[in-house]
Write a structure and sequence with these properties.
Layout (H helix, E strand, L loop, with lengths): L7 H15 L13 E6 L11 H19 L3 E3 L3 E2 L4 H10 L3 H18 L10 E2 L3 H16 L3 E11 L4 E3 L4 E2 L2 E2 L6 E11 L5 H5 L8 H11 L2 E10 L5 E6 L10 E4 L4 H6 L6 H13 L2 H6 L7 E8 L6 E6 L11 E4 L5 H10 L7 E3 L18 E3 L10 H15 L2 E6 L5 E2 L1 E2 L9 E4 L3 E4 L27 H4 E3 L6 E4 L3 E2 L1 H4 L3 H7 L9 H7 L4 E4 L7 H14 L12 E3 L2 E4 L2 E2 L11 H7 L1 H10 L6 E3 L5 H17 L6 H20 L3 H18 L3 H11 L4 H10 L23 E8 L2 E9 L4 H10 L1 H7 L4 E7 L3 E6 L1
Helix pairs in contact: 1-24, 2-19, 3-4, 18-19, 19-20, 20-22, 21-22, 21-23, 23-24
This protein binds one RNA strand through helix 7, strand 11, strand 15, helix 11 and helix 20.
Length: 804
RNA sequence: GCCGAGGUGGCGGAAUUGGUAGACGCGCUGGACUUAAAAUCCAGUUUGGUUUACUCCAAGUGCGGGUUCGAUUCCCGCCCUCGGCACCA
C-alpha cells in the first residue's frame, strides 16, 4: 500500500460502495432515538447540462454540514430527488428530438451517478422524481384540495405571455419584462387560466417571525408581497351617477389634489364611456396603449401622455373640480386603477401636470422651510414635513395629518381605510407538454368538474408532437381529451393545460419524510416528527418563487390539518453564486464548467475541499481552478501526517495544538465557515508535521477532517485499525484548560504605533508587563522623545504608551 | 429612482466585543534533491525608503473628513461593483 500519496481513484470508489453496502446513509425515520435533523438542499432539475459546478458548490458543503451534524449525535436525514417536470427537461428533449420521458430518465440516471461520486450521504431509499406518476398523483391531489377549498380557480384575466416558451407565466417568472427561462420579451394577453389564491395568505406570508432566514431574503419576500396601508377615497363626478374611487397612501396631501387619472383598462373607463366628451379619441388612445408592451411603457419613462374625459370629480374637502384623464402611466391592477393627482409632491403626477398644463399646489414643506418656486416635485419624507395650505391640517406633522385626514374622511363617509398588496394570485397553468395534467374536466351540463381522487393520477398521455404551439400539446391526444363527466356521465373534455413545475416543487420536502406511505400523500405522525426542515440550502434566486410558493402550500396543508407546523423551512442558507469570467454560467453563453473532469483528476474530496476553501460559502465567486493544487497537496500532506509521522517529543504541546484545532474546526463548521475550517486543518497539519502527534491525536484529527473529506478520512481511519465507520464516531471535544497558553505575545505601542513586542507569562501582572515593555530598546527610544502621559494595557494583547 | 450586500497584496481570501492588518492557500523568487524534469522539502514574498545588522522609518484595508490612546471594524459625506424591485399612487 502506498503511504506517500492519497490515491482517490481507488479509495473513493471503494468507500462509496462500502457505505452503500453497509446502509450507512439509510435514515430510520420512525424509531431512532437521537434528535432528528432534516438537512435539505434544493433538488436539481434534469437538463442537458447534468450537474454543473454550481450544484457541487451547493451540495458538497451542505453534505459536509450534514456529516458534522451526524457526528454531533443527530439522526440526520439527507434526501435527494429530481425536479424533473418542466421547461429545462422539455426544452432539452425538443432540442435533441428525444421524448422528454426518455431523455429525462437518462439525465436523471447520469445525475444520480454524479451525486454518488460526490460522496454524499443521501438516503436514496426516499428518492423523489416529480415526473413519476406516484409523485405527480399527489401533486394533482394537492390541486384538488385547494380546489375544494376555493383556493384554485379558473379566470379570464390579463396575463404574461412568453412567445419563446409559448406559454403563460406567473408574475414571479417575469424578470424586468423578460421570461425567467428563455429571456424572451413578455407580452400581455387576456386568457382564461388557472390560479392559486396565494393572496388569501398575504398576511401569514408576511410573518417571518418563526424563521431563521437571511434578512435579505425576508426583505425580498416582503417587498414582493408589497403591503401598503392607505385609503380608498370616493369622489362625486359632476353630471353622472357613478362615483370614482382612488387608492392613496398619502391622503395627507389631498388638499393638493388637482386632477384624477384612470388606467385605460380600468373599470371606471368601461362603465362611463358613454359620458366621455370625445370617445373616439379615448378609444384610439386605449387601443394604442394596449399595443404597447410593459417594457415599452416603462421605457417611455417620464414621458406622460393622456386624454381628457371631460368629466370632473369634486374634491370633497375643498369643492375643487378635478378633471379626469385617461393615461397609461396608471396601472389597472394596482389599487382601484384610479389615482388622484397631487403634482406638488409626486414625480409622476408632476410630470403629468406639466404635460397637461395643470395646476400645482404645495401642501407640505420640509423642515428647512418653504420653496416658493415649484420647479420640481418635492417628495417630503413622511417623518420630516409640516402641512400647509390644508385648512385644519395646517401645522401638523405628516404622520399626524395622515391619521387626522383619514379619520375625517371615514367619518364623513368619503373614504375607507384599506390595505393594498402588490402580490397577485399565482398563475399555475401552462400550455406545455411536460408537466402534471390539471385534474379537471369540462362538461356541457355540469361545467367545471374535478376528477375524483380515486381516479388519480390523471396520467400524462403520450403525444406525437410535444413541441409548444401556444396551446397545450395534450389537446392532440383525443383519447385523453374526450372523457365522461365524473358527475353526470355525459360527454366531457379534459383540461389540457399542465401545472407549473413550481407546484411540483412546492411540497417535495414534505413528501420525502412521508415517501414510505404509498396510499396517501402525507402522514401526520411523520410530518409532525420531521418538519420543519432544519437546514435548507439553495440559491437566493428562489426567494420570491419556490420559497414563497412552498410556504403558501405548506400553510394550506397546515390549515387542512396535515401538519401542526406552520412553516416548512426553519433555517435557510443561500450558497453564493459561482460565475465564470464575471458572468453567470449558462449553456447559451458557453461558459459552463463541468465538475466531472476535476473529480476524475483530483478526486471528490480534493474537489469539494477546494470549493469550500475558495472563500465564504455564502459569497460564491468567480471560478478558476488555479488553486486546486493547494487542496490536493493538503490531502497528500494529511495522508502522510497520519501514516508516517510519529510520537511527539513534547506531549503537552501536541495536546494543546490539537485542542485548539478542535475548537476552531468545530466553531467554523457549525457556522458553515468552511474556508477557515480548512485553513485551520492546514495549519494543524503543518505544525503537527514538525512537533509530532500520537495515535489518539491522529484519530481525533481524522474525525475533524471527516465531514469535509469523507473518503480520505474513512480510509485513514481504517488504516489505523478501526472497523466501524468514522461517521458513527462522536465528534471530538476540547478541553478549555488545554487551549490556554502559558505565555502570550504582547504588542507594545507608543502613540498607537507598534514599536516592539514581548513574550511573557499569561498571568503576569500589569506592573510587570509595563516594566518589561519599557525596557524594550526601540520602545525606550520612542519614550525618551517626550513625557509619558498615559499607559494603556489590554491584558494579554497590547500595551500603548501615550507620549507628548 | 428605491431597497439590500460589498470594496483588504500579483490572485482567492483571513482578522472575538475597536487592540500587532495580510492567517491559510495559489502564484512568483532563491535554494536543496535529481544526469535532467516532475514531485517533494527549505527560505523569502504589501509598497517605498533605510542599515554593519529581517535594522529601523514612512505609507497602507475604495475616496474625503470625524470620534478614540488606538479604526479594516464606529459616525458623517462621496465614488465604484454586485443582487433585488421598479410609473405600486
Amino acid at each position: 500500500m502506498d503511504n506517500d500519496r492519497y490515491n482517490p481513484a481507488e479509495i473513493e470508489n471503494k468507500w462509496q460502495q462500502e457505505w452503500a453496502r453497509r446502509g450507512l446513509h439509510e435514515t430510520d425515520l420512525q424509531d431512532d432515538k437521537r434528535p432528528k435533523y432534516y438537512n435539505l438542499v434544493m433538488f436539481p432539475y434534469p437538463s442537458g447540462d447534468k450537474l454543473h459546478l454550481g450544484h457541487w458548490y451547493n451540495y458538497a458543503p451542505a453534505d459536509s454540514f450534514g456529516r458534522y451534524m451526524r457526528m454531533m449525535g443527530h439522526n440526520v436525514f439527507e434526501p435527494m430527488g429530481f425536479d424533473s417536470f418542466g421547461l429545462p427537461a422539455e426544452n432539452y428533449a425538443i432540442k435533441t428530438g428525444v421524448h422528454p420521458a426518455a431523455s429525462t430518465a437518462k439525465n436523471v440516471e447520469y445525475m444520480r451517478m454524479q451525486l454518488r461520486k460526490m460522496g454524499t450521504m443521501y438516503d436514496w431509499d426516499k428518492e423523489i422524481v416529480t415526473s413519476e406518476p406516484d409523485y405527480y398523483k399527489w401533486t394533482q391531489w394537492i390541486f384538488l384540495q385547494l380546489y375544494k377549498k376555493g383556493l384554485a380557480y379558473r379566470k379570464k384575466a390579463p396575463l404574461n405571455w412568453c412567445g419563446g416558451c409559448m406559454t403563460v407565466l406567473a408574475n414571479e417568472q417575469v424578470q424586468e419584462g423578460h421570461c425567467e427561462r428563455c429571456n424572451s420579451e413578455v407580452e400581455q394577453k387576456e386568457m382564461a387560466q388557472w390560479f392559486f389564491k396565494i393572496t388569501d395568505y398575504t398576511e401569514q406570508l408576511l410573518d417571518h417571525s418563526e424563521l431563521d432566514w437571511p434578512e435579505k431574503t425576508i426583505l425580498m419576500q416582503k417587498n414582493w408581497i408589497g403591503r401598503s396601508e392607505g385609503i380608498d377615497i370616493s369622489y362625486e363626478v359632476e353630471g353622472i351617477e357613478d362615483k370614482i374611487t382612488c387608492f392613496t397612501t398619502r391622503p395627507d396631501t389631498n388638499f393638493g389634489a388637482t386632477f384624477i387619472v384612470v388606467a385605460p383598462e380600468s373599470e371606471f373607463v368601461k362603465r362611463n364611456k358613454a359620458n366621455f366628451i370625445d370617445l373616439v379619441k379615448i378609444e384610439d388612445y386605449i387601443a394604442r396603449s394596449n399595443k404597447k408592451t410593459e417594457l415599452e411603457r416603462i421605457a417611455e419613462g417620464g414621458k406622460k401622455t393622456g386624454v381628457d374625459t371631460g368629466l370632473k370629480a369634486i374634491n370633497n374637502l375643498t369643492g375643487a373640480k378635478l378633471p379626469i384623464f385617461v393615461s397609461d402611466f396608471v396601472l389597472a391592477n394596482v389599487g382601484t386603477g384610479c389615482v388622484v393627482g397631487v403634482p406638488g409632491h409626486d414625480i409622476r403626477d408632476f410630470e403629468f401636470a406639466l404635460a397637461k398644463g395643470l395646476e400645482i399646489i404645495r401642501v407640505v414643506i420640509g423642515k428647512d422651510g418653504d420653496k416658493s418656486k415649484i420647479t420640481r416635485p418635492e417628495q417630503v419624507q413622511e417623518d420630516a414635513g409640516i402641512m400647509i395650505n390644508s385648512e385644519f391640517l395646517d401645522g401638523m406633522e405628516i404622520m399626524k395629518a395622515k391619521e387626522a385626514i383619514m379619520d375625517h374622511l371615514e367619518k364623513k363617509g368619503w373614504g375607507k381605510r384599506v390595505v393594498n398588496y402588490r402580490l397577485r394570485d399565482w398563475l399555475i397553468s401552462r400550455q406545455r407538454y411536460w408537466g402534471a395534467p390539471i385534474p379537471i374536466v369540462f362538461c356541457d351540463e355540469c361545467g367545471e368538474v374535478p376528477v375524483e381522487e380515486a381516479e388519480l393520477p390523471v396520467m400524462l398521455p403520450d403525444v406525437k408532437d410535444y413541441k409548444p404551439k401556444g396551446k397545450s400539446p395534450l389537446e392532440t391526444n383525443e383519447a385523453f381529451v374526450n372523457v365522461k363527466c365524473p358527475k353526470c356521465g355525459g360527454e366531457a373534455k379534459r383540461e389540457v393545460d399542465t401545472l407549473d413545475t413550481f407546484v411540483c416543487s412546492s411540497w417535495y420536502y414534505f413528501r420525502y419524510v412521508c415517501s414510505e406511505m404509498k396510499d396517501k400523500p402525507f402522514s401526520n405522525a411523520m410530518a409532525d416528527k420531521w418538519l420543519p426542515v432544519d437546514m435548507y440550502i439553495g440559491g437566493p434566486e428562489h426567494a420570491c418563487m419556490h420559497l414563497l410558493y412552498a410556504r403558501f402550500i405548506h400553510k394550506v396543508m397546515h390549515d387542512l390539518g396535515y401538519t401542526k407546523h406552520k412553516e416548512p423551512f426553519k433555517k435557510l442558507v443561500h450558497q453564493g453564486l459561482i460565475t465564470k469570467d464575471g458572468a453567470k454560467m449558462s449553456k447559451s453563453k458557453g461558459n459552463t464548467v463541468s465538475p466531472d473532469e476535476f473529480v476524475e483528476n483530483y478526486g471528490a474530496d480534493v474537489f469539494r475541499m477546494y470549493l469550500m476553501f475558495m472563500g465564504p460559502f455564502t459569497d460564491g465567486g468567480d471560478w478558476n481552478d488555479k488553486g486546486i493544487t493547494g487542496t490536493a497537496r493538503f490531502a497528500d500532506k494529511f495522508w502522510k501526517l497520519i501514516l508516517t509521522v510519529n510520537e511527539p517529543e513534547n506531549e503537552a504541546q501536541a495536546e494543546t495544538l490539537l485542542h485548539k484545532t478542535i475548537k476552531k474546526v468545530s466553531d467554523d463548521i457549525s457556522k458553515m465557515q468552511f474556508n477557515t475550517c480548512i485553513s485551520a486543518l492546514m495549519e494543524y497539519t503543518n505544525n503537527a508535521q514538525k512537533i509530532g502527534l500520537n495515535e489518539g491525536h491522529k484519530k481525533s484529527v481524522i474525525k475533524l477532517i471527516a465531514p469535509i473529506a469523507p473518503h480520505l478520512a474513512e480510509e485513514l481511519w481504517h488504516r489505523l485499525g478501526e472497523k466501524e465507520c468514522v461517521f458513527n464516531e462522536e465528534w471530538p471535544t476540547y478541553d478549555k484548560e488545554l487551549i490556554v497558553e502559558d505565555t502570550v505575545e504582547i504588542a507594545v505601542q507608543v502613540n498607537g504605533k507598534v514599536r516592539g513586542s514581548l513574550v511573557i507569562e499569561a498571568d503576569a501582572s500589569k506592573e510587570k508587563v509595563l516594566k518589561a515593555a519599557k525596557e524594550i530598546l526601540n520602545v525606550a527610544k520612542h519614550l525618551s522623545e517626550g513625557a509619558l502621559k498615559k499607559e494603556i494595557y489590554v491584558a494579554g494583547k497590547i500595551v500603548n504608551f501615550v507620549v507628548l
